[in-house]
Amino acid sequence: MRRWQNSGAAWDRWADSMADPAARLNQPLLAALDLAPHHILLDLASGAGEPALTAAQGMGSTGRVLASDLVPAMLAGARRRGGGIDALSFIAADMTALPLAPASVDRISCRFGLMFVPDAAAAAREAYRVLRPGGIAALLCWGPQADNTLFRLLDTVLGGVPDLAVLFRFAQTGSLSGLLRDAGFGTVTESSLRQSALAEGAKPFWRPTLDMAFAPALAGLSREERALLEHRITAAVAAETGMDGRVPVHLHARLVVARKD
Ligand SMILES: C[S@@+](CC[C@H](N)C(=O)[O-])C[C@H]1O[C@@H](n2cnc3c(N)ncnc32)[C@H](O)[C@@H]1O
């Protein structure tokens, strides 16, 4: 919980400039949900707002998106950006104990959230409880660290951040699917999402990830220590930068889609 209480401002600060990469991750997640304008979608661990904000923009007058998160400070950014969207509501709630009736939502989304919940099996059972029969849950988690350039590079420069391991808790194929099957979901499919981009090596394209994912590790650094760290990151990026001044940045996530029979 403390990890997120101190991260809300950084996530809010970067959310707008991260909108493009966020959209590329939202697209397959939202497509898997097969959302209709009248649906009630519960988004778990919404943080600064995605995919709840994007989904809410496509809702009709009877549809609703419930953006939820354990930490009210994380939802502050979602409230700021989504305040004018009629179909959007906010709930501060632990996903292992949702204040919702059984079978009360049509769809559930969760982007990079379940891995942070110590009792993830309880969260999966709770998702199953509140989803209506025939409903769909779609979740995104990270694939292996080695396949995710930014995490790999920054973790190496920082000398190995123990806190980071939790991000890759469901990196192994089948681990998140198994959890959902155990919770009762009948049909569960899993696929790899891979994206690659070329970043300008001279630009600090890595700074949003550093600020957001590594916030707890950076919290105690002085201004000088932070400057030294950024200098070392720049050197590490330069070592991976091609003759054209660009550096390949790869991303590997897993999309798990589960249906309640
Ligand atoms: C990596 S952020 C993901 C935010 C957003 N979905 C996104 O993709 O940008 C993880 C979020 O999980 C939330 N979280 C952690 N434990 C939780 C729990 N037990 N119940 C609900 N949310 C939780 C954190 O507060 C944080 O906002």
From TrEMBL:
This is Ubiquinone/menaquinone biosynthesis C-methylase UbiE. Transmembrane segments: none annotated. One of its GO terms (biological process) is methylation. One of its GO terms (molecular function) is S-adenosylmethionine-dependent methyltransferase activity. Residues 42-138 form the Methyltransferase type domain. It comes from the Bacteria. It comes from Nitrospirillum iridis. Keywords: Methyltransferase, Transferase, Ubiquinone. InterPro entries: Methyltransf_11, SAM-dependent_MTases_sf.
